UniProtKB/TrEMBL annotation:
Pfam families: DUF488-N3i. InterPro entries: YeaO-like (IPR052552). This is DUF488 domain-containing protein. It comes from Bosea minatitlanensis.
């Protein structure tokens, strides 16, 4: 499996980024379409979960658990299939717009992909 990393969408692209995939539900302000190779909005947390986490950022473990459950939905599964194809083809960078570099949906997705879906594992 090719390497997968995460990066804020506002950071400049680098050659090692590979395919740059936006994993947010909303398009980030001020970002041109040329900065993103693919937008997988269906892999992002639901609006309700996103709002809940923004209101309670200290609930990281609960957010990760709820997000992992949402990844079992049909739309998320279809987006995950596309993501896994891209990962098989080469390096991938998951892009996010959140200011918090440690607790965001891209980090939660990366942990889930790494097999650490259980929030108690890290």
């Amino acid at each position: 499996m090719a390497p997968v990393s995460i990066k804020r969408v506002y950071e400049p692209a680098a050659p090692q980024d590979g395919t740059r995939i936006l994993v947010d539900r909303l398009w980030p302000r001020g970002v041109g379409k040329d900065r993103v190779d693919l937008w997988l909005r269906d892999i992002a947390p639901s609006d309700a979960l996103r709002h809940e986490f923004h209101a309670h950022p200290d609930q990281w473990q609960a957010f990760r658990a709820a997000y992992a459950a949402e990844l079992g939905g049909a739309a998320a599964q279809a987006a995950l299939a596309v993501l896994k194809e891209r990962i098989a083809a080469g390096p991938v960078t998951l892009l996010y717009a959140a200011r918090d570099e440690e607790r965001n949906n891209a980090r939660a997705l990366l942990l889930w992909l790494d097999g650490r879906a259980d929030p108690g594992q890290d």
